[in-house]
Fold these 3 entries.
Entry 1:
Amino acid sequence: MPVVTVDLWPGRSVNQKRRLVAAITEAMVEHAGAGSEHLHVIIHDVAKESWGRDGRLGIDNEPDAPVAAPAPAAKAPKIFGFAHMLLQVRDLEASKQFYEGLLGFTGRKAKPLADGRPFVPFRQGIALTTGGPGGAPQIDHMAFRVSGVDALAARLKDAGVKFFQDLHDGIYGRTIYVADPDGNKIELFEEPR
């Protein structure tokens, strides 16, 4: 956006300044290809004795000091809500029949989990897998979609929270797995933008 700055000695009337702005705008549109709606003319009243070059018109060859952009304000981490729950079950087929056949859950396509266990997700927010040999059925973990997962991970580390998995790129985005006070596994992930 073109900006024209004009230093004038004090005493010019508002109408004189308006006419000067109109003349500069007209000249910039005609000779410099500037759009009048995107041109800014700034007029400063400056005492003549403080002018450089003894008040004479001239070209300033000094480069402007770089203007640093303000740092973006850090947003506080935010939990959006429950995302999913992975249930560890004894009999995958019986559980699949219960959720799909009896409750009417809708299945989704999926690959096995990274550790090789089967993974049966449903559109309703839960998924099924098998536990270890002889393991009791339990909730494997609860997951929540969040924003600011990096800041949240740092805050949880500072608080001494147990991490099952440090910050990493998971299947849903940047992810951490932490323990609640009872040892329940909680997944916190931030989806890619």
Entry 2:
Amino acid sequence: MITASHNPPEYNGIKIYGPDGGQLALEASQKVSAFIDDIDDVFALNSTSKAELLAQSKIEYLDDSIINAYKSEVISLVKDIPASDLKVVFTSLHGTSVPIIPELLDALNFTQYEVVKEQAIPDGDFTSVKSANPEDHEAFDLAVNYAKASNADLLIATDPDADRMGIVAHVDGKFHYFNGNQIGALLLHYRIQSTKTIENRAAVKSIVTSDLGRKIAEANNVKMFDVLTGFKFIAEKIAQFESSLAYNYIFGYEESYGYMAGPFVRDKDAVQIVPLIIKLASELKNEQRTIVDQMNDIYSKYGHYQEKLFSHTFEGQEGKAHIEKIMHDNRAHFPSEIAGQKVIRVDDYLAQTSYADGSESKIDLPKADVLKFHFENGWIALRPSGTEPKIKLYISMITDDIASLAEEMNQAFFN
């Protein structure tokens, strides 16, 4: 897939998928990287004409049967959207989810939606948005104007390659922006309620995704698995479930606004999730409730988990060395306390070891440059980016005041 995803227009790149439909797993991606690293001059590569590649059957065009098969799977997953007074504003942010999402909503007999016309045009320059990333509030600016005019209840945005999805609830004149952990918790809870007849259910989340999902799963007799960041690891887990027959997958998600309910694809997929979240909102509307009400009910029952993400950029070789030093220093000397919170466990994913009470246990995941510090009421994680000169600090705590606590924790590492 040729895509810059939700990144700025000057970015470009490709996503490479394996035969199972998931992004390449570690071993395969390392082989591809090795081939690329062996190239001295990309401009000196021999090329083959399109006609020759077609003659050699190395290019295959996908016809409508593929799209129709996919649509059938989504419709089987969602089944129906109940009639209600719910009004939705939807934007594809100049991406690929138009026309397929409107076509699916029509097929599911949901017609009370309005598409943001200015952003329904495929446009690699993203001319009508400051950000084409549904994680950013400003990505919803035009949709908010539409919702004010129509008094819509729910605003939905998909990123340009339609794998991520963000939502905003419009309740009593106020716009409530949901983060990826919250959306994931809402969808996980909904999938659990919708799959009660399935035995040995399992869900999967990334190691930097809030533990609210784990609390919801365990309270409802659903096994929750943690994997490294990247949906390819969720796809690998599904393959393991299928080969062992030990578990039936019902949902997977990451805090970075990626979700997947139906494993007929093996990557985060906003196209199947949009009708699911609309179905949930429609059912709630018929109960005179909103997604905000549902989120508050989940917090009341399972804990008021709050999240904050800090992303720090350090440019150049000096910046790279600084990021490496931050990780090295915190590995060499684990802090016993961070912002007044006592550290009770440290997970070092590079050493594949968890440390607690003077004892060690193995982390059964591939190596990754991540440090995670656990407290009685939450955790924080340090994770350098693999593609940019950035280091991220993820914070997930049970608290009513995440802002001040998160700032203290951020200052502890980046003062």
Entry 3:
Amino acid sequence: MAYRLVFTEQFLEDISKLDHSVKVVVKKLYDKIEQNPKHFKPLHGDANVYRVRILNFRLIYKVRGDEVLMMRFEKRSRAYR
């Protein structure tokens, strides 16, 4: 089952600030997340919220039914605030 990615305004803002090389890595992950979003590490205490480590960044998303809500993409030091 393929999931549909939905991007929050905050996520799009986070991505727009990145270097092109990091954006390329993030876009490659989209296919993996669409195919199996529950493959990645879940956040403790948050049901259906997951994180992916990319370099010094964290991509945080939530699985809702057949959608994946892409919530944040921040440096690790700021991602969990």
